[in-house]
Design brief:
This protein has helices at about 1-15, 20-40, 45-60, 75-90, 100-105, 120-130, 135-145, 150-160, 160-180. With about 180 residues, it is mainly α. It is globular and about 50 Å long. Keywords: DNA-binding, Sigma factor, Transcription, Transcription regulation.
């Protein structure tokens, strides 16, 4: 795990200085994880592939802004991918080309498909903390942050007022912050 993290940090540093070969290495090491993260949100293979291309363009341009003292490189990369996918869903709407059953079977050579976060250590700590939340808070946070639902979509999906969703997410995030020591 530490070797992979170190390799990604080195590759990102080289990408920041314009090293195209390092970009290829970074792509080879991360494309399946990022694609899976995007696919879970947009639910369309074609859209996910397009977004993935855009994500790597963003990484190429922004590699110099990555700060290793602020977090793990894969977490930073996944945040770019996730935010890009959510932006597309908010702009163009959610598609249902791919069902949850397909997403569950989407394999990643590095990690099981159930892992929602890109970094295993962060994922395990977060998983434990999420399990301590009330059921409604936990569900709202999972759908919003791991599947890219907007608050309006959540309200419609769950069948509660948007104010309730906002409250659940806010309280849940405060609980997570306390649990994670933030």
């Amino acid at each position: 795990m530490e070797d992979r993290r170190t390799a990604l940090k080195i590759a990102l540093a080289k990408v920041a200085s314009g090293d195209e070969a390092a970009m290829g290495i970074l792509y080879d090491q991360t494309n399946r994880v990022l694609y899976g993260s995007i696919l879970r949100i947009v639910r369309s293979r074609g859209r996910a592939e397009e977004i993935l291309q855009d994500v790597y363009m963003k990484i190429w341009r922004r590699a110099g802004t990555y700060r290793s003292d602020k977090g793990n490189p894969i977490t930073w990369l996944c945040a770019i991918a996730r935010n890009s996918a959510i932006d597309v869903v908010r702009r163009e709407g959610r598609m249902t080309e791919i069902g949850d059953d397909v997403l569950e079977n989407f394999a990643d050579d590095a990690k099981p498909a159930d892992d929602w976060l890109c970094d295993m250590e962060d994922q395990e700590a977060l998983r434990k903390c999420i399990e301590t939340l009330r059921s409604d808070h936990r569900t709202s946070i999972r759908l919003a942050y791991f599947e890219g639902y907007t608050q309006s979509e959540l309200a419609n999906h769950i069948g509660v007022p948007i104010g309730t969703i906002k409250s659940w997410i806010s309280r849940g995030l405060m609980g997570l912050k306390g649990c994670l020591g933030g």
